[in-house]
Write a structure and sequence with these properties.
Layout lengths: L1 H27 L1 H35 L5 H18 L3 H10 L2 H21 L11 H15 L5
């Protein structure tokens, strides 16, 4: 399954993108198509910075309110992916990248991406999240018990 996904992403999608850009170039002209590709790339970089900072502000706000930051972190990753897709030449990647910059769509998609990533990790035996205190915390607890459990000399 992974091979098929990688094949589609790295072979079929670029081929379709190239074909679409050639067809657009035939209709509107080569210079106009080149200007479109460069303009969308610049727009992707600018939107990535702007939307990325907005998501960071929301992330810090949710941390101040002591809410779990997972959805905001996924939203931040989606902004980065959207920016990369806009910078990458192509029509399909541009449409997908623009979708990732629409906040309601991104907020709808983030929990689904998070669940898919958790399911993928769990299926492969990767432990995600805190399962209790780590080894250093346990070691510190043992030392504290030893130190504070003995009565103090007079």
């Amino acid at each position: 399954m992974t091979f098929l996904i990688l094949f589609l992403l790295f072979t079929v999608v670029p081929a379709v993108e190239l074909w679409a850009l050639i067809e657009i170039g035939r209709v509107v002209g080569g210079w106009e198509t080149t200007l479109y590709v460069v303009g969308i790339g610049v727009l992707g970089a600018w939107l990535g910075k702007r939307a990325g900072l907005a998501v960071l502000r929301e992330l810090f706000e949710s941390l101040r309110e002591q809410k779990p930051p997972a959805d905001k972190l996924v939203e931040g990753a989606l902004v980065v992916v959207g920016s990369v897709l806009l910078i990458t030449p192509g029509v399909l990647t541009d449409l997908t990248g623009i979708l990732l910059f629409i906040p309601p769509f991104r907020r709808w998609l983030a929990p689904r991406v998070k669940q898919a990533a958790l399911a993928w990790a769990t299926k492969r035996g990767v432990q995600v999240g805190a399962a209790g205190p780590g080894p250093r915390a346990r070691q510190r607890e043992q030392v504290e018990k030893k130190v504070f459990s003995h009565p103090r000399p007079p």
